[in-house]
Design goal:
The chain has about 600 residues and is α/β, with parallel strands linked by helices. It contains 18 helices and 31 strands. Strands 21-20-22-23-19-24-27-28-29 form a nine-stranded mixed sheet, with helices on both faces. A five-stranded antiparallel sheet has the order 1-2-3-4-5. Strands 11-10-12-15-16 form a five-stranded mixed sheet, sandwiched between helices. Strand 25 and strand 26 form a beta hairpin. The longest helix has 22 residues. The C terminus is likely disordered.
């Protein structure tokens, strides 16, 4: 059950109210002086920016707690909701007080509610009446469990949208919002909560006495802090909100706040009608009780029957070839949609070059692509990939124009120059990736590299954010059936005879656990010595879908051409044609210009 969820900004807002200096240290916000003991000992008080827990390390003080503690002890407002719950910061003095004088239940009110299926007995029991000189304005008095009149709501029963002045419903100003009908509840086994007062009265009319309704509709939850402890008394709570577009109002919010003891009326039991009162009037009280009795606990949207899962042959999945037949062999034809591919390799070995060549291949196969580069400016990335596509070091302006036309509205790059306030870089990148997929139909996503996106903080917080970011990438890949290639640096130089291991990747060990494929593009070593400075090897050390991984005996040897920036296998063929220009196909590099590492 959750009344309050910590936000990092709450800690920073708190320290603004304290007359002492502060600074961030990893995942902690450190105050120069403890606000409790105000000792001359410096930097003993800190707030954990992940949990909101605080402590003073001085043994004579040893103050501990969380943001709610600070809110109470220092008159610091986290939110109106918290102030209402704890009746702090003068909040309790803001509410209007009523005398409990008898309310006259008038005949016009009784007649109106009879037309809504509510008997005179129920109308009188809940003291429903209308304004003394206006029979169209019904008055709903809200009493707390002790019987004190606390809140009043009005409803214009003759209101016509677009014609009648004012509002259909409104409340007495400066009242403490609570649930309607609380004073009639004596059994704390099960409670029904409806959206409207007439709906809770309909439930009572049907013979189910434990019914209340919210004061200000499905989007107003100012009442919850005032009713929080009272709600904890019930074994279970049934939400009988309005049925709108196949969803029941109130349920999602109350389930998130109160927990699994919250149940919901099944949509089918609404019989096609909107609310409890409609069911009572159109179908009768038995159908209202049926809906309550059939209410079920929350069923996760992620819970899917296996019989509903579409049968798909993995070999038939959309595949993006790498252009290197040996790599494609291990991967079952290439990168499969739904996969996140992690590529690593020492700086300067060519891992980014191979990755951008994969972008060329994806474009050539008709796939739109998105690129992120955290280290290179966009014009450098363009120059590099244009050379790969054209296969020459110094393309003419005409050839560059042909490239622009060829990948126009098919190849996109992340604009590092735009800064969105209030969002982290990883949030901005994830949002942009999703937009590129949804709006531009990108199927191949290249992120170069992880360390430029998530790089700040101590190891613990850094690794957690890295793992969370990679997990989010995995969800995007599977949700939209795309390939995401992520580049990450290795932890150290690979001098162990060139045998790359998954835990050689820098950062959290959880990164390689989350992704589907792990590849490393490295120099080739034998007994600690580099075997051939002109060549590289591609190691595949994780291959979740196909299961095939490389060993020293079947390593994939590759070569590089510095003119075209292209990579080839042992065949050393660098003349593939990607782009057509005005004269036809772009010319390939003559064999004599092939230069290995």
């Amino acid at each position: 059950m959750e009344l309050y969820k910590f936000k990092e900004s709450d800690a920073f807002n708190f320290v603004k109210t304290i007359p002492t200096h502060h600074f961030r240290r990893g995942n902690e916000l450190v105050l120069q002086k403890c606000p409790y003991c105000n000792s001359e000992d410096k930097n003993t008080f800190s707030i954990n920016l992940n949990t909101g827990q605080f402590s003073c390390k001085r043994a004579s003080c040893n103050a501990k707690g969380n943001m709610l503690t600070l809110s109470r002890d220092f008159s610091f407002t986290l939110s109106d909701e918290i102030d209402r719950y704890f009746e702090q910061n003068s909040y309790s003095n803001k509410f209007k007080k009523f005398t409990n004088r008898p309310i006259v239940v008038r005949d016009a009110a009784i007649d109106y509610f009879k037309r809504r299926g509510i008997s005179e007995a129920v109308t009188r029991k809940y003291n429903i009446t209308h304004k003394e000189f206006d029979v169209a304005i019904m008055c709903f008095p809200f009493y707390d469990p002790e019987g004190n009149l606390t809140f009043i709501k009005y409803r214009n029963v003759e209101y016509v949208k677009g014609f009648s002045p004012g509002s259909k419903e409104w409340c007495e100003t400066n009242c403490k919002p609570i649930l309607f009908g609380m004073n009639h509840i004596t059994d704390f086994k099960e409670l029904v909560i409806t959206e409207g007062q007439i709906d809770s009265l309909s439930v009572v009319e049907a013979g189910y006495n434990n019914a209340v309704s919210v004061p200000t509709g499905c989007n107003g939850f100012t009442w919850l802090p005032h009713c929080w402890e009272w709600l904890q008394k019930f074994d279970s709570i049934i939400v009988f909100g309005d049925c709108e577009k196949g969803q029941v109002t109130l349920f999602d919010y109350l389930h998130a706040r109160i927990g699994d003891k919250v149940k919901c009326v099944d949509v089918e039991d609404y019989q096609g009608y909107k609310d409890a009162n409609d069911i009572l009037v159109k179908c009768g009280p038995d159908y209202v009780l049926q809906a309550i009795n059939n209410a079920r606990k929350h069923v996760s949207k992620r819970l899917k029957s296996m019989s509903k899962v579409k049968s798909i042959d993995p070999s038939k999945l959309h595949t993006i070839s790498t252009g290197i037949k040996e790599i494609d062999y291990f991967l079952g034809g290439g990168f499969k949609v739904g996969q996140v591919v992690l590529q690593t390799g020492e700086r300067g070995n060519g891992k980014s070059t191979f990755a951008s060549q994969c972008v060329c291949e994806a474009l050539d196969q008709g796939n739109n692509c998105f690129m992120y580069s955290g280290e290179l400016p966009d014009f450098y990335v363009k120059n590099w990939i244009d050379r790969q596509l054209l296969g020459k070091a110094m393309p003419t302006q005409s050839e560059i124009d042909s490239v622009n036309k060829w990948y126009d509205d098919r190849l996109f790059i992340y604009d590092n120059g735009i800064i969105e306030e209030g969002k982290t870089e990883e949030e901005n990148i994830l949002k942009t990736i999703e937009e590129s997929i949804v709006m531009k139909d990108c199927k191949f996503i290249l992120i170069d590299n992880l360390m430029t996106i998530v790089s700040e903080g101590d190891n613990e917080s850094l690794y957690r954010v890295q793992s969370s970011f990679v997990g989010a990438l995995c969800k995007l890949a599977k949700k939209y059936n795309v390939v995401i290639m992520l580049i990450a640096h290795p932890r150290k130089r690979l001098q162990n005879n060139g045998d790359f291991r998954n835990d050689d990747v820098s950062g959290s060990a959880d990164i390689t656990n989350r992704v589907d494929v792990v590849m490393s593009y490295d120099r080739i070593y034998e007994h600690g010595e580099e075997l051939d400075p002109s060549s590289r090897q591609m190691s595949i050390t994780k291959n979740r879908l196909e299961g095939k991984i490389t060993t020293k005996s079947n390593r994939i040897v590759m070569y590089f051409n510095p003119e075209s920036k292209r990579i080839s296998n042992r065949d050393k063929i660098f003349d593939k044609i990607y782009v057509k220009d005005k004269e036809g196909y772009a010319k390939a590099i003559p064999d004599g210009m092939q230069v290995p590492f």
